[in-house]
Design a protein that fits this description.
Chain lengths: 194, 443
């Protein structure tokens, strides 16, 4: 089943080929997990969202109209699930800094490198960025994560979020502006922050 | 550069794009996928409620974050403030108002210049009338030529019909009270005149007008020099005043916009249109469209700049013509391609002097790379690792070089990514090169 396109895999999965859908899961689970991690800042919840994204997508395969790429569809489900989780979480608990799953990789990398001062600064930078991103609204944060962290184009983000590209561009601009302001408050020079 | 001795961070976008991901082994990911498949295969989906609760499939497939109403409104000023343009919404509105007034004026019959004394009499009737809108209009920087022309015309009508009417507001003024200014009190007029005399805006306006005229003369000379421009060559003999002369007349008119009091006859120099409008008038003169006989007679209009501008604008005095068409007429632009437009084409690719930004805006970079990235992603297989690309743009906006690091480096995909990203292009900028980074992930 090598090198089949996503659409072909979806077609096969619709015909009952579970392995075809498994191939789709393997292709996209890392990015869906990463997205959920950035939106939820919680490892367990991100794992749950990732799994549920694919399960719900499988259940709704018949509704996939093929007008967009399957991954766009996965992203949309994952974002909806994440936002729903965030809404239900707000009344339950708050995230602490030490619990931030987004910094896992940075902390792990830090332990493997020799240059401790640089690592500390890098850790500070990403900590500040994480907190700055947390200050953003769900809309701005989600758009920023999609475009600036996940590397999706405005067109792709527009398809995923259901907003025009111009709105996506404005959201990215606004998110970057607010993030810059936050970083300035934290002592980072805006000239170097883009 | 970070303060307090922190290590300098890279560009914000680069930092965000390079956000490290917690790596898992392929085996772990495989287990995760198998777990999902086993849940699907078992059909036991009761555990789903822990995340999504009672969210229906329809809700999950809906656009998560569509445009909110406030985003539509708030996006406009942001877009108007795109870096480098220096164009604000307010200034656009002013320009719009200026063009609108010019177009409106172009459709009016110019009043005789002797109406000013009657206007004074009429104005004296409405003493003490306070109008906030008029106050704003006077202070907004938008000189409403249409309003002045209208009030003068109405004043003349009032004088010819019944001089005694000077004691009351004219009917014509009442009819046009919806969007045309009413006569104001004499005291107010005197105050305004005094303000104009002493106001620094007059001097600033004069300087701006002079600059616009200089630019107009420059472009006019360029048009004249272009022997290949059939419009200028063909129409020049029919033009009552050549473009340079017209521009000089405008310059002369602008020069009178100094604190010296306005002449009694002719158009008040202080009522000249804003700089942009003057530039349009100069441009119209430079295009040198001959005046056509029609309902508009230029004799009463003493100002040479308006003489140059109005006939051009009123060449087709259709009451049903759209505002846009009137504005185009006023600006001397025709919708069909003309030889004049053809001669302007070679300049279209070149940025206007002073408009080149020092470096490309983030939006331009993102837009440019965003368009090129999908094809770059296509160079990677689904399981290929992430690669990073460093794109160096030349000052003309094209890509000078593309460096690829990461998974694709040294592989055939590197060349593919280079080729894909080399197609990116941004608007020209001032500094020699500009480097941007992009993360290329497989689709």
């Amino acid at each position: 089943m090598a090198k089949l396109t996503d659409r072909e895999l979806v077609d096969r999965a619709r015909e009952g080929d579970a392995q075809a859908f498994g191939q789709l899961v393997r292709r996209h689970q890392q990015r869906i997990h990463r997205l959920a991690m950035h939106l939820l800042r919680d490892r367990a919840e991100a794992e749950d969202v990732m799994q549920e994204t694919f399960i719900r997508a499988y259940r709704a395969l018949a509704r996939f109209d093929g007008r967009s790429e399957p991954y766009t569809w996965f992203y949309r489900i994952a974002i909806n699930l994440s936002l729903n989780t965030l809404r239900s979480r707000k009344s339950r608990r708050t995230t602490t800094e030490s619990d931030d799953a987004r910094l896992d990789a940075i902390i792990n990398e830090k332990q493997t490198l020799a240059d401790a001062p640089d690592d500390a600064a890098r850790n500070q930078l990403y900590e500040a960025l994480s907190q700055g991103i947390d200050e953003l609204s769900d809309t701005l944060r989600t758009t920023l994560v999609l475009v600036c962290i996940d590397g999706r184009s405005h067109e792709e983000a527009a398809a995923m979020l259901g907003a025009p590209e111009g709105t996506i561009a404005w959201r990215v601009h606004e998110a970057r502006r607010k993030l810059k302001e936050y970083m300035i408050k934290r002592g980072f020079d805006p000239e170097e922050m883009g | 550069m970070m303060s307090e001795g922190k290590t300098p961070p890279r560009d914000l976008d680069a930092v965000l794009a390079a956000w490290p991901t917690a790596e898992r082994t392929a085996l772990e990911w495989d287990d995760s996928a198998e777990h999902v498949l086993s849940l699907i295969g078992s059909g036991d989906l009761t555990g789903l409620a822990k995340v999504a609760g009672r969210v229906s499939d329809e809700d999950l497939l809906r656009p998560p974050l569509p445009t909110a109403p406030d985003e539509v409104q708030s996006s406009a000023p942001i877009e108007a403030k795109i870096e480098g343009t220096g164009m604000t919404t307010t200034s656009r509105e002013r320009d719009r108002a200026g063009f609108k007034d010019l177009a409106r004026l172009a459709n009016m019959t110019p009043p005789p210049s002797s109406a000013s004394s009657v206007r004074s009499a009429e104005i004296s009737a409405s003493t003490g009338e306070k109008d906030e809108n008029k106050e704003w209009e006077e202070n907004s920087g938008v000189i409403n030529l249409a309003a002045i022309a209208t009030s003068e015309a109405e004043a003349q009508e009032a004088r010819t019909k019944a001089p005694a009417v000077a004691g009351s507001m004219s009917q014509a003024t009442k009819r046009s009270a919806g969007n045309e200014p009413k006569p104001i009190a004499e005291a107010r007029e005197a105050k305004r005149e005094e303000k104009k005399k002493g106001s620094p805006w007059v001097a600033i306006g004069g300087v701006v007008a002079a600059a616009a005229v200089a630019a107009g003369v420059f472009f006019g000379m360029q048009h004249t020099d272009r022997a290949a421009s059939p419009a200028t060559v063909a129409l020049a003999p029919q033009t009552p005043a050549n473009p340079v002369a017209a521009a000089q007349n405008v310059a002369a008119a602008a020069a009178t916009a100094s604190p010296t009091p306005p002449v009694e006859h002719g158009v008040d120099p202080s009522s000249l249109p804003p700089a942009s409008t003057v530039a349009v008038a100069v441009h119209a003169a430079a295009v040198a469209v001959p005046p056509k006989p029609g309902p508009v007679t230029t004799a009463p209009t003493q100002d040479p700049a308006l003489v140059a501008a109005i006939p051009t604008a009123t060449a087709v005095p259709s009451a049903t013509a759209s505002l846009q068409a009137q504005m185009q007429q006023a600006a001397g632009v025709t919708s069909s391609p003309t030889p004049t437009a053809a001669t302007a084409n070679p300049d279209e690719g070149l940025p206007a002097p002073g408009s080149v930004p020092i470096k490309p805006s983030q939006g331009a970079i993102q837009g440019s790379l965003g368009a090129a990235l999908p094809s770059a992603r296509g160079c990677l297989g689904p399981d290929d690792p992430i690669s990073h690309a460093t794109i160096t743009f030349k000052s003309d906006g094209s890509v000078q070089s593309v460096g690829v690091t990461g998974g694709a480096a040294g592989k055939p995909a590197e060349g593919c990514i280079r080729a894909a990203l080399s197609k990116a292009r941004v608007a020209p900028f001032a500094q020699p090169t500009f480097t941007a980074t992009a993360t290329v992930r497989p689709n």
